[in-house]
Amino acid sequence: MARPSTSSSAASGQSSGQQANGHLAPSSDSNTVRRSTQDSSKEDTDETPDRIQYDYADVQSPFTSKPLPYDPTLLPDGKRSLSSIGAQSFWLGFALATSLVLGAQTAYFDYPIWRLFAFVASLSLFHFLEYWTTATYNVPVVRASSFLLFTNGTAYNVAHTCAMLEIVVSTFAFPRFQAKYCNTITISIGLFLIIFGQATRSLAMATAGTNFNHTPQMVKKVDHELVTRGVYAYSRHPSYFAFFWWAIGTQLLVGNKLCLIAYVVVLWKFFHDRIQREERSLVQFFGSEYEAYRKRTRTGIPFI
Question: DSSP string of 217-272?
Fold first, then answer.
């Protein structure tokens, strides 16, 4: 659970991810001309993308007489691979829909294995919204990896695997013990924390916009601003706050005991260390402005 790869604080800098560069130069083929279509003074349109530069090759098409876009980052091996984005979206949607259907059926017939499907559904929605929110409000840094499915590190994967194993083992090996500590109250609290945490995290990402990044920034970008509006007026690290309580909510919902304790301890330690490191950089970036902001806000995570 040590690397949930949650976002940095309100002032996380914009990623400096590489973009495909356009060039005004004729190719060796006399029938093909490459030219840049980027105009930073205009908003994004289909023909003049503002943030992502395209090379346009004059390729004949039966459907249009306009040049077709060419961007290597969109190819299967690219950072914005459309095939990877499509595949991840499909399988996340499949996992979410299947888990909701099976979870509802097993819960209706009072089979405790519904907890496994509920956990998978929560994870599927979380990872999809990580990409969707980034793609909607932070276009310059969106990548196929923005789903965070394969970039959160081994500890993150181990934590969720252990949670699923505890669900399965407690369901079939210790059903009475599991039922004793998984009741309507814990389920309701867990569901509330999941919804609240997910909504707060997505709202934090949307509010920060291009100032948001999934990794802490050690160098201040030119357009890096300190965001203090919206949810950031109440918590200076709303995405960390949200993920902390969201993760705890998942374990309360499914009735895990061992993983609940482990999640609390490991996540608290992770965010404690990360926030300390990050705030040292933020003080360097914004000086007294950030120090004043830090004094009037909280993290929302106990004792941090």
Answer: -SS--TT-----SGGGGTBSSHHHHHHHHHHHHHHHHHT-SHHHHHHHHHHHHHHH
Structure confidence by residue, pLDDT tens digits, 211-248? 998 888 888 888 889 999 999 999 999 999 999 999 99
Give DSSP secondary structure letters for 55-98. Answer: EEE----SS-SSPEEE-GGGSTTSTT-HHHHHHHHHHHHHHHHH
Amino acid sitting at position 82: L
Dist CA 129 CA 284 (whole Å): 31
Q: Are residues 113 and 141 in the same domain?
A: yes
Answer with the one of 70, 90, 125 that is the final residue of a domain. 70
**Residues of the domain holding 239:** 82-296
Residues 259 and 162: beta-carbon distance below 8 Å: yes
Going 261 to 156 to 4 to 100, the CA torsion angle's sign is negative
Same domain flag for 36 and 90 = no
Question: What are 157-188's pLDDT values in tens digits?
Answer: 999 999 999 999 999 998 888 877 788 999 99
